[in-house]
């Protein structure tokens, strides 16, 4: 075959055939170099092959040529890039063989097979594989996008690449990844009319070279944002439900840097990126939710547990539970929910779990046990839910021990109020009966001779009525309806006076100790009632120490704050005077303490006590505006603490007035007597008439007003019951005083109305008599009212 035929044969093959010298210079190049790369063969002769090789491939080709000289005719292959005349690079599989000993060749024969498409397919497959690997291995979004960017550069020109994510709430783009040779990463910006916004709105991948960009600008579709790029490629980042952003690559020099194949490839990668971003967003949202749950869980002030539904083991426990129960976190995780319950509660709890279903929250009241063994009351709310792939129970437990005590205190207070109203009503009606009994016995004793055999029996009736009257006074004291004569006083005076009387009462085997505060504040109270309080408490203390002991009475100033008010909500905050009466006696159980202030409740043997002593104390303290608490334990004594409001007023010193009953005051005035109880009215009328007074009787307020119209000029005094049907004594008196401002008023009552009692103390023309009263007491009050200025 001749040289011309051989050349024609080499020019017709698809491969590029070249003969290289030992130095790598081109000795021969076939027409394939012209068809694929655009070079004229005559221009390549004499040039080094490295002049059209990709920079990083030159050293490898040189090394290959050196190895061929030592290979004894064996062929060597290598993949490399050759540059075309227009500057583009194509991939070739080069096979070289040493033919230096062949006549007419005398060099290295290299065939270049074009594998650009194959290399692109392999590179794309490799890039997709790396992207998927990064999605599975990299949790951080910044690291993920940076890794994808490095992979993209293996296939397309991605030196200038960014990701724009859309924030639907603000309709802005943010740029979590931005790599550019000209521009810097922009701040978040409105979507606007950039090429990125155009791709986002259309939701389609777009290749926008300079000519297409100019057309879109002319059509008003886009505007220039950032440095101009003659080659621009953008693909939407789409999830199955929405377009969340745009992936962009651009080239500032080569308008032909991208083609449709690049567009398809980048669109495929964009789909993976969108799913990755969506996944990371979901993971970030989940992480934030978990952080929020953890924050709320750990900072919940109430003990909170996550308990495995099957094993009942604690999976999670917050700090409040650690503080409340005394177990460490590690100890809790080795325990079950049964171990914080007393033995008696465990079977009940298991039955509760068996019957409860996943139908919402369950509320229950239980007993729990701390590490130190202390049992306390809790109210728990539990939810059944899924947690880390298992069924669990989320439980929030609140210590309600104090609330339980407060509820008991409130119920006790309400019970005492109800019993007080009952006792007051009974005392009121009973006092009307006693008024009739005592009144008639007094009238009989006044008309019968002293030697009469019936006088002694009438005196016995009178003494029995006196004892009954004393009982009603105690009932009225308990129900806070007795008539008080309060004044500003120093409680130390009463305590010291009682200190001289009590030793004879409590006996020699009881040691009395009195501790008083020198700077004790003043209170407003009835001195005789305060004496009654101390007397009753001392008698109770004596009875609680049958073998002797110690009785301590002490006074002090105190201030009750919000903390005390939290434990005792019926106590108002403020400044108080405290009187405490304590003994070393037998003490009381909680059951006994719950009833000690109730009327007729007593632990003493029958006939040894009425059960009204502490009830009287309770009523006096309450009517004086104070509070009383008892602290007692069996075998360890009892302490009563009474808190009375302090007042900033000077102490009132009152000298005792001795009244003589030897003479009954008399008069001649006309008195209007108004009383709805006929028997009481009859007794009062006879009392008044025995004193020389003219009496006009009225059954109620309406009848009394009618008499006033007839006898307006002759009535000197109104004597009226305070509680009557239709019109009270206060209302009757008010209507009469409108016409006769100087009219004197004497009220009668079976018990005290507090508002009325306070108004009586401020008006000298008014007076109050408590039923049952004597003839002398009534006539004395009438005389004082009629004779005072």
SSE layout and pairings?
Layout: H1 3-12, E1 16-20, E2 26-29, H2 32-37, H3 41-44, H4 55-68, E3 76-83, E4 89-99, E5 107-114, H5 116-137, H6 141-152, E6 160-167, E7 172-179, E8 189-190, H7 195-202, E9 206-207, H8 210-218, E10 231-238, E11 243-251, H9 260-299, E12 304-308, E13 314-317, H10 319-325, H11 329-332, H12 343-355, E14 362-369, E15 375-387, E16 390-399, H13 401-447, H14 453-478, E17 487-489, H15 491-506, E18 510-515, E19 522-525, H16 527-543, E20 549-560, H17 562-567, E21 574-583, H18 590-593, H19 613-623, E22 627-632, E23 638-647, E24 670-674, H20 678-690, E25 694-698, H21 701-710, E26 715-721, H22 729-739, E27 744-749, H23 754-762, E28 766-770, H24 775-787
Give structural notes.
The protein is built from 24 helices and 28 strands. The radius of gyration is 55 Å and the shape is elongated. The chain starts with a helix and ends with a helix. The model is unreliable at 656-662 (pLDDT under 50).
